[in-house]
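Sharing a chain and its predicted structure for anyone who wants a worked example. Both blocks are below, sequence first, C-alpha cells second.
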Amino acid sequence: MRYELKHLSTFVAVAEELNFHRAAERLGMAQPAVSRLVRELEDRLETRLLERTTRKVMLTATGRYLLEEAQEILAKIGVAESTVRLLESGTKAILRIGYTTITGHSLVPEIARQFRLDNRDVRLELIYLTSPVQRDRILQGEIDVGFIEGSFQSSEIESRPVARHSLVALLPPSHPLSGKEAITVHELAEEALVLGTNAEWPTFRRILVDVFQKHGQVLKVGQEASSLTGILGLVTAGVGATIFCGMPSFCGTHAIVPRRIEMDVPTLVETHIAWRRSNLTTAMKRFVATSQRVGTAYRSFVP
C-alpha cells in the first residue's frame, strides 16, 4: 500500500522534534495518531526510520535520508500551494505577450517597465509575432495578450486602441531628401525603398500600399529585410530610405535622419491591445490598464 502526504509530514515533525509528544502538539494531533502514522509509513516502506526507547527517539540511517528528501518535497508542495493561491488572486501570474516590430522597439518595452514597477510578482514573457499570427495564438490560448496593428472584430477577441503612430521617412544623412523638413508621398514613390518582407511585415506593407494608392502612387521596393535591425542597417549603409512608425528609440540622428511625410490625409497606424474575452484575468486587466496609460502618454506616439 502506498503512503500519503500526511505520513510524510508526520514523520518530518517527529524527526525534527525527536519527540512524539512535541510533534503531536506541533501538528495539532493526538500522540497515538502520530505514532500510528509513523508506524504505517515504516510498514509501507518496509524499513525502520526511528529507534525508540523510553527516554529518546533517534533517526536510523534510512530515516536521516528520508528526512532530507521529505523536507524538500514538503517545501516544494508549500511553494506550489502558495503560488496557486497567488495565481487565483491575480497577484502572481505569467503573462505571455505578443508584440510586433512596430511596438517592440519603444512602446512594449516602456509598458513592460511600468507594469513591472507595480507588479513584481507577475512574469512577462514577450514573444515576437506578426499581427495575423497573434490573432491565431490568442484564439488558441497560446498567448494571453497581443499588440496588433489595426482593430480586429471577433466574437471571441476583444481589442482596445493603445497608441497611434505617425508614418516617418527614415533616410541616411547623405540622401538628397534628408535636407528637406518634410517629404511628399510622390517624392517617396520615386525611391526604391528598403522595406520589411511580406512574410514578417504583412500588415505594415498593406498599410503602405494603401497610402501610396490613395495618393495615386505605386510603392517601389528596392531591398527587403526581415527585421528592423536589418532594415536600419541597410538605411545606415546608404542603400536607401525606409518608412517606419516614428523614430526607433535606439537610433541616433547622426546615422539616420527622420523626416515627416506630407499627406493629403495623414495616416496614423493604430496599435490595439487584444485578448480572448473568456480569458481576462486580474493580472491581464492590470496589464491592459497600464498599456492604455502608457500608450496615451508615451512621447513617440501621436494621441
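Comments welcome. The chain has eleven helices and twelve strands.
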